[in-house]
Amino acid sequence: MLLVLLSSVLAACAGARARPDARHLPDDFSLSVAVQPGGGREPAWYVIEPDGTLRAAIGARRPDSPRPAGVRTLTRDQVRGVWELACAAGLAGEHHGEGKVSTTLPGSPAGAAVVEVASAGKRRTVAAPAPSDASGAGLSKLLERLRELAWIEPAGT
Length: 157
What we know:
alpha+beta, Mago nashi protein, 22% strand, 157 residues
């Protein structure tokens, strides 16, 4: 009886730990953000792999675009900062893997972004809002940080 109770408690704790939230950076966190042309945002593609490798390319992503070149390896704290921004923008975290999924680029508003997030064994692809959308502010902060981490000069400088 004690063994059954103990195994139930351990299983519940393991399940609680696997649930992603802004306070816990999952070991398998990865991110891809492909920004569409227009809407005041420069088209770009940023990828963070689970080992912290940051890849980046400026310009529109096409279906036949190769994966961007590696720019640098981020520290765990830098990746955690990106994770927190993705959670704040509603792209990852507690409800990751829930909600409407859109994997199509055509028809996305100018300046929108296609965001793929993987964490805690789940993957989610969404069309994130354009900057003119009120909920696009979180994505703008995330993009600004990715641009800084990739050592890309601000547009227009």
